[in-house]
Amino acid sequence: MKSPTTYKFLPPAFADRLTGMGLTVRRPVVGAQQGLHRSPNFGASVEFAEYREYRPGDAPSLIDWAVFARSDKYMIRRFQEETNLRAYILLDTSESMSYREDGPMAKLDYACYLAAGLMYILVHQSDWVGLSTFHDKLQKTFPPVGSFEGLRPMLRHLEDLAPHGRSNIAAAVHEAAEMIHTRSLVILISDLLQNPADILRGIRHLQHNGHDVTVFHVLDGGELALPFDGLVELRELETAKKMVIEASEIKDAYSRTVERYLDTLRRGCTDCLADYFVMDTKLPVEEALHRRAARK
Question: What are the chain's domains?
Fold first, then answer.
């Protein structure tokens, strides 16, 4: 019988390996309480931001008397307030995420481990995290929580997921951009099998709304380089369309096309200040998370 505190995608040994990892953001965020991240607001943290002139109603204790002694002006020291952040994980559950050829698990399982690990890291550092699953649109949304107990329904939901439906990543990301009303960390986990220009428009929508965006592009090695030789019949997972190819004749062209596709996404994310990571499912999940945690 399964222990009530054991989760498929966050087993104890995996959680232990995540201890000490942390996630930061580049852009100011809005949170509910004091924490680790820079806020667009000003408060009484230890990081000095700027001076402003004293105004009636300000506490005299905020006056910088050293500046007064030099300039004969009453000046207030303003500090950058630190805050906890709210994060939202957008998880692609479309049929194409069922693909497994060269990796140890299907793309959706890998993505679920990523999502569970991110949830654990964020709550462990006193932040809040929510989850939305999608294929052609957002399917199930859990509002952000800030406790391990609050993660329970999300972790259980990950265990119930099955790849389903045709993807419309851009539409789901636009929908999420309209749903999230405060500056947040938005983490997209998907195989991104859609026109890159459409996906990048969705990411720019998030960026325009003030969010800090991270993209985990999850791919099986069999998608990065054709693992077949000879005459092969391929079936598209989301439409069931079939195609017969001579793999040896198109391998080089396929590799060049994949590289252009990845480069377009990489450059597009960089242009809108989004972090972009290609994750081959052969890469250990904790190493994938470490790459994001190591980002400065």
Answer: 12-29+84-293 (3.40.50.410), 37-83 (no CATH)
281 closest CA partner among 45, 122, 103 = 103
pLDDT at 45: 46
Strands 128-134 and 138-145, sheet pairing: antiparallel
Instruction: State whether residue 193 is helix, strand or coil.
Output: coil
User: Residue for token digits 């499912």?
Assistant: 281
Residues 113, 159: contact at Cβ < 8 Å? no
Rg (CA), the chain: 23
Predicted local confidence at residue 100, as pLDDT: 94
Distance CA 261, CA 194 (A): 10
Q: In which residue are the tokens 């990950």 written?
A: 158
d(CA 110, CA 281): 6
Tens digits of per-residue pLDDT, 54-108? 666 566 766 778 877 888 887 766 554 445 689 999 999 999 999 999 899 999 9
| 8-state DSSP, 211 | -
DSSP string, 133-178: EESSSEEEEEEEE-SHHHHHHHHHHHHH----S---HHHHHHHHHH
Q: Which two tokens stand for residue 182?
A: 């405060």
DSSP 75: E
- Other C-beta atoms closer than 10 Å to the C-beta of 262 total 17
Global pTM reads 0.79
Q: 188 forms bridges with which residues in the sheet?
A: 90, 215
**Which two three-digit tokens encode residue 181?**
């009303």
User: Quick one: pLDDT at residue 227?
Assistant: 76
- At 152, the pLDDT band (50, 70, 90 cuts) reads very high
